[in-house]
Amino acid sequence: MRIVGLSCRALVRLASCGTAVLGICLGTAGAHAAEMKSFDLPRGPLDAALLAFGQQSGFDVGVDAAAIGGIWTQGVRGSFSSEDALSRLLAGTGCSFRFVDARTVRISHPRQRPARHGAEPGRIARRDPAEIVVTASKQSSLLADFPGSVLMIALDSDAPAARTAHGSDTVLSRFPQIASTNLGPGRNKLFIRGISDSSFSGPTQATVGQYLGEVRLTYNAPDPDLNLYDVERVEVLEGPQNTLYGTGALGGVFRIVPHAPSADGIAASFSAGLSVTEHGGVGHDLAGMVNVPITSRLALRLVGYRELDAGYIDDPGRALRDINHSSSYGGRAGLRYTPGGDWTIDIGGVLQNIDMKDGQYALSNLPPLTRGSVLAQPFDNDYVLGHVTIRKQWGSMELVSATGYVDQDVKTRFDATGSDGTASPRLFVEDNRLTVLSHETRLAGHRRKGVSWVAGIAFVSATDEIRRMLGDPAAPVAITGVRNDNIEAALFGRLTFPLWRRFSLMVGGRVTYADASGHLLAVRSEPDASRVRHGWSVSPSVGLTWKIPSGMSLFLSYDEGQRAGGLAVSSSGTQETTQRFEPDSMSAMQGGLRFGREERGHVSGSIIASYTRWKNIQADLIDETGLPYTANIGDGRIKALEVQLQWMPLSGLRVAGGLFADKSRLVNAATEIVSPTHIDLPNAARFGGRGGLFYRTELGGDRTLALNASLQYVGRSRLGPPPDLYIRQGDYWNADLGGRLQLGRFGFSADVTNLFDSRGNRFSYGNPFTVRLGNQVTPLRPRTWRLGIDAAF
Question: Is residue 353 part of a domain?
Answer without folding.
Answer: yes
